[in-house]
């Protein structure tokens, strides 16, 4: 960890922990290359020690606390793991708000953070804020073309907002860790999952599902998981000024979009492979059914916006996010 008295000639070692395996897209295609860039730009004065799969202990829900308390220097985590910790940022996970795709969603998320959500992160240095590209519906035996097909389906939900969305569409949300999805589905305990394409192979969803329902390119994605790279403030402030400058240049919007680009490559690759497999059917929602699902979920947004918990004007946040989306994705339905 960086010392407050660090000199420009010192080597700063950043301890980074996350909740996925070392072979994950996040580590192999973003975190490790980013660390290599830090080391190269700093001529070896910034080094990373990466701890995948919570190797230093704790569970994913504790990552935000662990980095805030200085147990680690940096955490890559899902904001939803820390329920209530980042209340303004919940707007990003409201149903049918963001476009599908990691780059576009991450760019919007960074704008929203800068304009409306900085108070959520007063205890941290925010290095990146990303969208996971948005969820699709993956089912074993039921092809989901419309809301009638959703009725009674037991679907794994990754976030609280996703659970509310599934409920609003007539399904039954079920919560469980990603590692349990395939086995639970194979046993018939659940019927499918709402998940981003990127996680389908790692969670073995492709081995137990046959139908995959997604929105079209010009339609907002049903749900998003927002992920963040958070740094301990003392660790950041303890870095020499020239090393902080390098860190800043390689982080922020640049790192957020870098995550998004990697997610988009993974999403495109997985969707292409599954579309070519005769055992799988990929369904794109019609405009009519998309509008029906979007309208059915509107009360979730309205109820969230009407809450003033914590003295936060959530209506302003919803309207602000909608304005950013209109500017960044003007053709979105």
CATH class of the largest domain: Alpha Beta
When the domains are counted, the total is 2
Q: What is the element string, with H for helices and E for strands? A: EHEHEHEEHEHEHEEEHHHEHHH
Biggest sheet layout? 6 strands, mixed
List the helices and strands and how they pair.
Elements: E1 12-18, H1 25-41, E2 46-51, H2 63-68, E3 74-78, H3 102-117, E4 124-131, E5 136-139, H4 147-150, E6 154-156, H5 160-168, E7 172-174, H6 181-186, E8 192-195, E9 211-214, E10 226-232, H7 233-237, H8 241-249, H9 253-275, E11 281-284, H10 287-296, H11 298-306, H12 314-328
Parallel strand pairs: 1-2, 1-3, 6-7, 6-8, 9-11
Antiparallel strand pairs: 3-10, 4-10, 5-8, 5-9
Task: Report on the architecture of this protein.
The structure is a single chain. This protein has helices spanning 25-41, 63-68, 102-117, 147-150, 160-168, 181-186, 233-237, 241-249, 253-275, 287-296, 298-306, 314-328; strands spanning 12-18, 46-51, 74-78, 124-131, 136-139, 154-156, 172-174, 192-195, 211-214, 226-232, 281-284. It folds into 2 domains: 12-132 and 225-266, D-Maltodextrin-Binding Protein, domain 2 (3-Layer(aba) Sandwich); 136-222 and 279-328, D-Maltodextrin-Binding Protein, domain 2. It has a 6-stranded mixed sheet with strand order 7-6-8-5-9-11, sandwiched between helices. A 5-stranded mixed sheet has the order 2-1-3-10-4. Helix 3 packs antiparallel against helix 9 and helix 11 packs across helix 12. It has 12 helices and 11 strands. It is an alpha/beta fold and 333 residues long. Strand 6, helix 5 and strand 7 form a beta-alpha-beta unit.
């Amino acid at each position: 960890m960086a010392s407050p008295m660090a000199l420009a000639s010192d080597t700063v070692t950043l301890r980074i922990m996350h909740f996925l395996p070392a072979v994950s897209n996040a580590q192999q295609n973003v975190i490790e290359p980013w660390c290599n860039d830090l080391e190269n730009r700093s001529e070896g004065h910034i080094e990373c020690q990466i701890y995948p799969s919570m190797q230093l202990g704790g569970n994913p829900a504790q990552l935000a606390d662990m980095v805030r308390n200085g147990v680690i220097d940096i955490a890559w985590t899902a904001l939803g793991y820390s329920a209530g910790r980042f209340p303004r940022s919940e707007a990003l996970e409201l149903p049918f708000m963001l476009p599908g795709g990691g780059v576009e969603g991450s760019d919007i998320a960074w704008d929203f953070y800068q304009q409306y959500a900085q108070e959520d992160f007063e205890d941290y240095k925010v290095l990146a804020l990303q969208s996971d590209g948005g969820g699709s519906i993956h089912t074993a035996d039921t092809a989901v073309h419309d809301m009638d097909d959703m009725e009674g389906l037991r679907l794994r939900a990754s976030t609280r907002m996703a659970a509310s969305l599934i409920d609003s569409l007539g399904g039954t949300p079920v919560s469980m860790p990603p590692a349990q999805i395939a086995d639970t589905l194979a046993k018939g305990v659940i019927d499918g999952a709402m998940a981003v394409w990127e996680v389908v192979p790692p969670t073995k969803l492709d081995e137990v599902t046959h139908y995959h329902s997604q929105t079209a390119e010009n339609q907002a994605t049903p749900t998003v998981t927002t992920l963040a790279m958070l740094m301990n403030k003392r660790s950041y402030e303890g870095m020499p000024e020239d090393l902080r400058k390098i860190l800043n240049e390689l982080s922020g919007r640049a790192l957020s979009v870098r995550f998004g680009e990697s997610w988009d490559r993974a999403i495109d690759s997985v969707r292409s492979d599954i579309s070519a497999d005769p055992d799988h059917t990929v369904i794109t929602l019609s405009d009519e059914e998309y509008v029906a699902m979007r309208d059915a979920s509107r009360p979730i947004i309205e109820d969230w916006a009407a809450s003033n918990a914590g003295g936060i004007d959530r209506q302003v946040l919803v309207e602000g996010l909608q304005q950013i989306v209109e500017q960044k994705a003007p053709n979105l339905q």
